[in-house]
Amino acid sequence: MIMPRLRPKRLLFALLFLGLALFVALKTHPVQDWLLNRIMSRQFAQNQAALFDKSAMRVIFCGTAAPPPSPGKAKACTIVIAGGKFLVFDAGPKSAENIARWRLPMPKIDGLFLTHFHSDHIGDVGELAMLSWAQGKKEPLPLYGPDGVNKVAEGFNLAYAYDQEHRRTHHGAALAQGGGLVARPFGMADAESRKRHDASAVVYESDGVKVTAFQVMHEPVYPAVGYRVDYGGRSVVITGDTAWSDNLIKHANKADVLIAEAQAETFRRPMAKTSAEQGQQQIATLMRDIRSYHITPVQAAQIADRAGNPILAITHQGPAAPTNWFMRDIFMRGVKRKSGDVKLVDDGDMIILATGAKTISIDKI
Ligand SMILES: [Zn+2]
Ligand SMILES: [Zn+2]
Q1: Is the separation of the CB atoms in 268 and 298 below 8 Å?
Q2: What is the pLDDT of residue 261?
Q3: 293 CA distance to ligand 2 centroid (A)?
Q4: Is 357 a domain residue?
Q5: Is 36 among the domain residues?
Q6: What is the CATH number of the domain that holds 166?
Q7: How many domains does the chain have?
Q8: Residue 27 belongs to a domain
């Protein structure tokens, strides 16, 4: 068969013509409006109903960084969806935007649980309450935490008082109900439990979902807690911020997944050294001090080993979150675990634990 000869000039003209036609079409209003409608209908579709089916517990990472700037990562935030409940643990800066961007149904949030009151864990509390209200939540967002959480709730309610007033004035009946936060303190701030370092309490129980708060070691930050969530025979444990803690090991025992913070010494040491060399003494001091109240990736793995070997998901990656394989390799130096048993998680990662089974799978939201 004789192939027709390719004529480069004609082909070039045809491509140019097509490109020009497409450009002209994209500049016409009907085509623009049609495309915009398609984009919007995708953005507003809350196609997340499958996340709420009761045959699994799901963990979604809505923030995986520590305080220093980390492009593409929000600060501390973990979502657990189980038994139809939508629970959020910590709301660090930018985490509310992640949750909104993923089109998760924010009015369904049943509770926000704080591990402690450092800014990288509470920066978006106000935004999370505002967005869930603006999108249709008809009662204030319950804010769970150890004693002191009342003050945090009051503070955000005060800071957002004008915002609520202005939105109610503008939108009327649509926003008449709900808004703001209601504190649900559960104690754990007394001097005796500080000394013993063994306090724990069931702080939420509904439709087969049980949340247990337990004291961790983030001294001089006190109170500071971690959480264990049990549902359908599966369990996940969130460490919050902590140094080595026997109480954490006790409550992580036989959990399926340990969601651990970690500050890598391989990053902290050079960050402290170079900031001092460059005359940034205050940053150097902070870099020195943070060592005392966090665990390293190596310690997180050791805690997992002692707790019966759950899958280890490392979040709150600090002092800076690694951004490529080279940095991840340095961050995880010394961690001796099989590759399937440990994961340095990113915003948008999701762990799925089927109930009544032993399977765990990892996906993206
Ligand atoms: Zn902290
Ligand atoms: Zn923190």
Answers
A1: no
A2: 98
A3: 10
A4: yes
A5: no
A6: 3.60.15.10
A7: 1
A8: no
What separation in Å is there between the alpha carbon of 114 and the centre of ligand 1? 11
Which residues lie closer than 8 Å to 34 by C-beta, 6 or more apart? none
Q: Are 224 and 186 a contacting pair, CB within 8 Å?
A: no
Cα(224) to ligand 1 centroid in Å equals 8
**Given its phi and psi angles, is residue 346 left (phi above 0), alpha (psi -120 to 50 degrees) or beta?**
beta
Residue 220 C-alpha to ligand 1 middle, in angstroms?
10
**Ligand 1 centre and the CA of 225: distance in Å?**
10
Q: Which residues hold their Cβ within 5 A of ligand 2, which is an ion?
A: 118, 120, 241
CA of 66 to the centre of ligand 2 (A): 6
If you measure from the C-alpha of residue 64 to the centroid of ligand 2, how many angstroms do you get, rounded to a whole number?
Answer: 10
d(CA 336, CA 293): 22
Starting from the CA of residue 217, give the closest ligand: 1
Residue 167 domain boundaries: 51-364
Exposed/middle/buried for 115, CB within 10 Å: 0-12, 13-18, 19+?
buried
Q: Please name which ligand lies nearest the alpha carbon of 116.
A: 1
Ligand 1 center to 118 CA (angstroms): 5
Contacts 24+ apart (CB under 8 A), 337-340: 337/301, 337/304, 337/312, 340/311
Flag whether 23 is in a domain.
no
Paired sense of beta strands 257-263 and 109-113, if any: unpaired
> Can you give the pLDDT of all 365 residues of the chain as single tens digits?
555 666 788 889 999 999 999 999 999 999 999 999 888 877 666 657 789 999 999 999 999 999 988 889 999 999 999 999 999 999 999 999 999 999 999 999 999 999 999 999 999 999 999 999 999 999 999 999 999 999 999 999 999 999 999 999 999 889 999 999 999 999 988 888 888 999 999 999 999 999 999 999 999 999 999 999 999 999 999 999 999 999 999 999 999 999 999 999 999 999 999 999 999 999 999 999 988 999 999 999 999 999 998 999 999 999 999 989 999 999 999 998 776 799 999 999 999 999 988 899 999 99
* Ligand (nearest to CA of 66): 2
